[in-house]
Structure formats: C-alpha cells, structure tokens
C-alpha cells in the first residue's frame, strides 16, 4: 500500500477529500499531514482521522533535512500539496523527483507563480475577462506552478462571476478530480 503525505496550509478541504477517498481502498492511505500553519484547520482534520501531523517552520523546511528524515520515517511514497503555499526546496524535489503533486486553481501556465493562490487567482482570472478557468494538477519542480501538467479540467467563467462564485466552481472541480488523478498516478 502506498503512503501519501499531504502538505496543507489552511482549511484542508482537499486534504479531507484525499483522506476520505483513500481510507477504504487498498491502494494508498494518507499517512501524514504536514503544515506550516499552527492555526490551520487541517490539523483538526488530521486528528479527527487519526492521522499524524507535523508542524514545520520555515527554517526546518528550507535549511535542514529534518523533513526528509520525517518523511522517510513514515515511508512516504508520494507528497500531495493541497493548498500548501511555500516553494518546495531543492533537496525535497530531488529526493521525491516526480513524486510531488500540486493542484492549482487555474489553467496553467496562466495565473500561476509566486503569490498566485486562492482569491488572488480568481480575481486575476475575472479581471482578465477570461471565458474559462479550471484546475491544473501538475508535478512540482523548483519553480512555482511550472511542473509537468498531469490533468487540466475547465469550467466556464460567467460575466456575473465574482471571485467567490468562481472559487466555488473551482473547489467543486478540485474535490471531484484531485483524488482520482492521484489514484491513477499510484496505479
């Protein structure tokens, strides 16, 4: 059985979808939740699901191999980013080459890069008068949102959409497609 570490910085709705998706099958399990935010609701989700969680700070994440050692301790096969806002350091990318996956709330390569997350993305999409948006599931490399694309799913952007209504459409796509895309990667 494959073991997944989910990195999240906030609410953890995508993390919860992954936990739920894999808890009853025999392909994989979410074995560890990693967060950089001591107030992140994903910690409560981890506790409720009896999944260990690890709180990291920037120094531990960027300047040491502590995290790599922890991931090895939990026998992690795949890292899944679910609203994790820090750039993955080189040592982690090297150790988990093509084994770190992210979901982005827009159709890359547009609206990606540092600072392009959550409402910032949706505001930019609407301001650019895009006719469609969507999600991009991609491998992680040394740059924000530039890894090889695994899957893109589109939705229409209505003239009446606000960042909040567009976010709701995007969340629906994330919850529908992220876990199944991860499942296909693990088979």
Quick take:
38% of the residues lie in helices and 22% in strands.
Descriptors:
Rossmann fold; 7-stranded mixed β-sheet; 7 helices; 7 strands; 38% helix; 22% strand; globular
How does this model look, in words?
By secondary structure, this protein is an alpha/beta fold. It has a single domain (2-186), classed as 3-Layer(aba) Sandwich (Rossmann fold), CATH 3.40.50. Helix content is 38%, strand content 22%. The protein has seven helices and seven strands. It has helices at residues 13-22, 42-48, 58-63, 66-73, 90-95, 118-127, 163-186, and strands at 2-7, 28-35, 53-55, 78-81, 100-104, 132-139, 149-156. It has a seven-stranded mixed sheet with strand order 3-2-1-4-5-6-7, covered by helices on one side. Strand 2, helix 2 and strand 3 form a beta-alpha-beta unit. Helix 1 (13-22) runs parallel beside helix 7 and helix 6 packs across helix 7 (163-186). The longest helix has 24 residues, at 163-186. It is globular, with a radius of gyration of 16 Å. It starts with a strand and ends with a helix. The mean pLDDT is 96.
